[in-house]
Amino acid sequence: MEQYIIRGGKPLVGEVVISGAKNAALGVVAAAIMSDEPVQLRNLPVISDIEILLRGIAALGAIVEKQGEHGTRVIGRPIHTCVADYDDLRKIRASYYLCGALLGKYKRAEVPLPGGCNIGSRPIDQHLKGFEALGAKVVIQHGKIIAEAERLIGAHIYFDCTSVGATINVMLAACMAEGQTVLENSAKEPHVVEVANFLNSMGAKIKGAGTDVIRITGVTSLHGSTYSIIPDQIEAGTFMMAAAATKGDVLIKNVIPKHLEAVTAKLVEIGAEVEEFDDSVRVVATKRLQHTNIKTLPYPGFPTDMQQVMATLLTVAEGTSIVTETIYENRFMYVDELTRMGAAVRVVEGNSAVVEGVDKLTGATVRALDLRCGAALIVAGLMADGITTVEQIEYVERGYEHFPQKLRELGAAIEKVDSDDQAAIHKFSYNVVG
Ligand code: EPU
Q: Is 350 helix (H, G, I), strand (E, B) or coil?
């Protein structure tokens, strides 16, 4: 099994370039099959979730041609089935976007129920409610969502909760429905805006993405497009926090500072310096960070996807912090792993964690239990004394492009090794002593 080994205690210094946004790219790749004409996608992140989705659309019959490391050309015309049965699709959350895309274009979709990180119950009732409101008959059978309609007709849909996935999925279907659809209580995350912008670049008529009311006028076909994915705000936030955690000085390039406001505000509040430029941010920390309270909220609030990394920073901050998770019920599994490293964190009332700042973390063997847990443990390893081994790194590779390489370029001591390769592990550990 592959794992990361990290020798902590080195400040991160230098520049890092942020890759394309995972959660935007997943929506965009699914949307790309809705045109019969060629779609050129740029700045796709090199991560396993995107690889799986690309293989999934190729299995439907779409032409998928790699163009360099970050580019892909997709042609939806040869799609010959609406049954998405590429096995690995079950592993990723965003497989559900194929439901909206196929239903919108072909009025039929058969897609595996989504997988993704185990961070609590993740219902999809709002997606199904939206499809049904557009006139589709939807059933869950044999582990699949099966949706079909003779015609999709625009509708007025009020989401009962703010859901990124449901907003994007219903938007996909609605942009090829007949007439007007209004989505109320929509999610406002940058990836919702990005998928809407991409669909509009193919000729869709979507207005209001980024606000809680999205208005869509259906069209009968979508044309080709060339489109570059926005930078990943969570990857950027992770590097910002890693810089602050290691008392480093890092210029994080290719970001949209506006998307990072919640993270920037908290970092400044706990004592890091953040300088904003047009498309980069510099984070410098020179002294011990201070405690704060965090509450995750839909955008533009503090993102749930940054909760674990932020809490990790607070484990060594001065004083007691309270971290409250309002989006997912089970996003505190990483707490036990951090405890192995000497953190003093306890979960109270299910959705809050009390973090008592300790002087230091110490290296240990820990497991990445989900994607952001993995990122948090890597940041913990960078701060800790001694060697940290992070297992189950396939979770991390789902969402961070070349993470160890980017960290090494900033001066971190981190290697990806096979757990059977004792020689490599020994060599890395020996370097600590030597
Ligand atoms: N919800 C429902 N019913 C639904 C849909 C959602 O009750 O039909 C609830 C969920 O249980 C949750 C809340 O609404 O409590 C928000 O869920 P949302 O649908 O917004 O999440 P998602 O679309 O499944 C995406 C990202 C997540 C990110 C969340 C919140 C993708 C592929 N995933 O998930 O990303 O945490 O939005 O911003 O876009 C990650 O990248 O690590 C990750 C988990």
A: coil
